[in-house]
Amino acid sequence: MGLKLNIDAIRPGMVLAADVLSRDGKVLFASGAALEPWHVQILKTLGIAEVDVSEDQSGLPSPAEVLEYVRDFFLYVNPDHPAMQVIFEIAAERAGERTRRGWRLPDLATRRATNVEHLEDVFGPGQFTPETIVKHETELSSFPDIYFRLKDLLESPSASAKRIADLIAGDVGLSAKLLRLVNSPLYAPAQPVDTITRAVTLVGTNELATLALGITAINYFKDIPPELIDMQTFWRHSLTCAVLALLLAKRRGLPPERFFTAGLLHDVGRLILFKKLPYASTEAMIHARENALPLMEAERILLEFDHTDVSRVLMAEWKFPEQFRDSINHHHDPMDCAQPVDAAIVHLADIMANAVGIADGGMYAVPDLDAAAWELLEMRPTELQALMIEFDAQFEKTLKAFL
Amino acid sequence: MSLFSGAITLRAATPITDSEFKELRDFIYQRSGIWVDEKRKYLFENRFHKRLATLGLKSFDEYIKLLKYDPRSQEEMKSLWEIITTNETSFFRDIKQLESFQNVILAEVLAEQRKKGKFDLNIWSAGCSSGEEPYTLAMIISDALGLELPKWRVTITAVDLSPAMVAKAKAAVYGEYSFKTTTEAQKKKYFVPAGTDLKVKPEIARMVNFQQMNLNDDAAVRRVPKSQIVFCRNVIIYFDEAMRTKVARAFYDNLLPGGYLLLGHSETLHKISTAFRPKFIPGAMAYRKE
């Protein structure tokens, strides 16, 4: 039985005892969801007055059950790799922590149930390649040119902080998001930054242009219907990867913004797959879940290519910078990248984001860590624990900057 | 504060050495055509972990010896197939393909038979798992034939590698999970309650013959009655190219001229066979034997 609480009494960690519905009767958050700070924020924003939360704290899973649940997502990886061991510990601790706050481990049926029979692919079986899929997208709509105008300006002799700021400020949505990002803990400015001109000074022109690229890409995909993919979950995973990639890049003295944006866009090929082949890509998701395989592996089996093959074509078409593209397109095979360290950072960040995501209800097997890529990063496994502390200090507020 | 008292370790399973992995992989391949990629070595360890413990075995080497030389081998093979095949399905899964099948392929085949005055229809469901697919086909056929049904002889030969799956299919009783892609109307029309579960109606069930079969067993495959239609959905993804080529050939040989092969949603004969003429129907690809 649930307990009806006034919205002001609702705290993160509480578990919903009934679906929260929007005014038009759509399920916003399902019963059983453990509330995160962003849930609470949205509930307040929508003016929802009362929420049914669970008062029953009995039946919490035992530590052994939590461990087995988390282990199920680690069946594919090398269990003897010391870094993977630490990532497992991180995932288990986080899942354990969430269950103590009332999160119920999703049961097998929830993990598997999907009915996507109403979805229809743009292309018939066997009638598509990464090229034809991307072409279908790029012929329909082009990537917003704000980023290219920025790039052109940056490369021209007349570039100045003022001209760049003026250009960005011309795009209201973009400047608002950039300002929120620059004011987030990622930069933690001493004084609030309230103009793009100041943001340019603080972050740098090239860096700000790179962030603008990520934000523009998110905006580009904002219209994907929710029945195709849960965009909230998708961007949460992407942003987790982005923040981790940024932190890893900082450790090595590499430009953090480039890695932040690469992390943010590393799965962008998947969005195109969902738009063009919703049924086939859902089949891949089901196959991955049923066979405890990473999603990428299931895509390869069912489609004969994976989401990085799609992003390779897409980002070339969009003329994103080459080194940037490579770090994304090789995040599953980092050692094949011309700059393997770049790809290794996104590779590790993605694996960790998958592991961290288990405690957020993530459903997919954690991909295996490339041992050579790990060597390149010259890290001690225990450093990953410290990385997560930094991550936690920054993530939720950064997420808010994006919502 | 950690939730876990003491150290937690990622490794839970008995390790498999490279040579043990290769030996077990080759054994499985030879017996079933299922190819286990090197990348799945750890997944393999984890899958077999409980089985080894149940049998009281200390290593994969002991397990391989049991499979190869022990009198219990035949019995153990049943568990082996259960461990390595996990494909779950549901009634009326991939409805767009099934609708196209009914409206185009089945309609054409039935018309052809009527023209010849031959009221029989043979379908081979290869890799039928727990039976949802062949029963769904029987339901579609029953719907398509309507009042004509009694004068037709419909035989769906449904085979699967796993004896456990075949036993479940024969029982014809299904729980909630099998109905996630099934409408209430379909449930009412084709099932009767069996406790909290549902049982396939006998007039549907009688069209389907189940048997355990290994698609790598040439002699067994040749005994399947010649068919007008072969369904093989989400099976060849587990095979390597050589085995895919082999089963495509077997389907071709089994089909009567003018017959059709249908694969799973994303599967194609690309790089496997050029013997068939591909025919695009909405939501699916059908392969015709000319």
Notes on the protein architecture:
The complex is a heterodimer of chains A (403) and B (290). With 403 residues, chain A is mainly α. Chain A has helices at residues 37-45, 63-71, 82-100, 108-112, 130-140, 146-155, 161-169, 172-182, 196-203, 205-220, 231-251, 256-265, 268-276, 278-290, 295-303, 307-317, 322-329, 340-357, 371-377, 383-402; strands at residues 2-6, 20-21, 27-29, 50-54. In chain A, the strands form 2 sheets. Chain A has a two-stranded antiparallel sheet with strand order 1-4. A two-stranded antiparallel ribbon of chain A has the order 2-3. In chain A, a hairpin with a 5-residue loop joins β2 (20-21) and β3. In chain A, 47% of the residues are buried. The mean pLDDT of chain A is 89. By secondary structure, chain B is of the alpha/beta class. In chain B, β4 and β5 (197-200) form a beta hairpin. Chain B is globular and about 70 Å long. At the A-B interface, α2, α3, α14 and α15 of A face α2 of B.
Overall mean confidence score, pLDDT of chain A: 89
CA radius of gyration of chain A? 21 Å
* Major pleated sheet of chain B: 7 strands, mixed
Which assembly state applies to the chains in this document?
heterodimer
Low-pLDDT ranges of chain A: none
Structure described in brief:
By secondary structure, chain A is mainly alpha-helical. Chain A has 20 helices and 4 strands.
What secondary-structure arrangement, pairings included, does this model have?
The complex is a heterodimer of chains A (403) and B (290).
Chain A: E1 2-6, E2 20-21, E3 27-29, H1 37-45, E4 50-54, H2 63-71, H3 82-100, H4 108-112, H5 130-140, H6 146-155, H7 161-169, H8 172-182, H9 196-203, H10 205-220, H11 231-251, H12 256-265, H13 268-276, H14 278-290, H15 295-303, H16 307-317, H17 322-329, H18 340-357, H19 371-377, H20 383-402
Antiparallel strand pairs in A: 1-4, 2-3
Helix pairs in contact in A: 2-3, 3-18, 5-16, 6-7, 6-10, 7-9, 8-9, 9-10, 10-12, 11-12, 11-18, 11-20, 12-17, 13-14, 13-16, 14-15, 16-17, 17-18, 18-19
Chain B: H1 18-32, H2 41-55, H3 60-69, H4 73-84, H5 95-116, E1 120-126, H6 132-145, E2 153-160, H7 163-171, E3 173-174, H8 184-190, E4 191-194, E5 197-200, H9 202-205, E6 208-212, H10 218-222, E7 227-232, H11 241-254, E8 255-263, E9 277-281, E10 284-288
Parallel strand pairs in B: 1-2, 1-7, 2-6, 7-8
Antiparallel strand pairs in B: 3-5, 4-5, 8-10, 9-10
